[in-house]
Amino acid sequence: MRIGVISDTHGLLRPEVLRAFAGVDHILHSGDIGGAQVLEELRAIAPVTACAGNVDGFRCGDAREMARIELEGLRFLLVHILDRPRRPRAEVLAELARAPADVVIFGHSHLPHDERVGGVWYFNPASAGPRRFDYPVSVGIFEKTGATWRARHVPLDARSERALAAHMNQLSNR
Q1: Do 140 and 5 touch, CB atoms closer than 8 A?
Q2: What would the pLDDT profile of 116-166 be if each residue is shown by its tens digit?
Q3: Which residues, including other chains, have CB under 8 Å from residue 67's CB and lie 6 or more apart?
Q4: Across the chain, what does the average pLDDT equal?
Q5: Nearest Cα to 51, choosing from 31, 34, 27?
Q6: What is the pLDDT of residue 34?
Q7: pLDDT on residue 173
Q8: Residue 161, class by beta-carbon neighbours within 10 Å (0-12 exposed, 13-18 middle, 19+ buried)?
């Protein structure tokens, strides 16, 4: 199984995303979608589970503030604003206490993240929408091989390859 992970499109679905997500079985969008048309375009590729972000007013099509899905035994919680993996905001902690998740997919910061903290895997694909500062423009791929899940960031342009390395997991360093 392959899962595409995207965030912070802000109404822009780049053609590079379509290539990166070719052949995925499901897509997770962690907010700041920027319009239901983005969800429709993504659904032309694969089924989509999404949460809405602050730019969306936490409502975009069928997306609301948080979303959950289990795919091949991996329980995902999607939130837009996490704060930091080592200090999630109170609403996220309450939701994890209500029903545990293996992976928390988040956005908002536009910074790439891939870290396990306290038994939870925190992943931010960075932004796939308009470029912000010197941050990367990228998406993520979760892939299951046998019984093992792996995740990786996919840069959407050459400049983003270096930016991914430069900004990876900065939220744990602040």
Answers
A1: yes
A2: 999 999 999 999 999 989 999 999 999 999 999 999 999 999 999 999 999
A3: 49, 50, 51, 77, 78
A4: 96
A5: 31
A6: 97
A7: 72
A8: middle
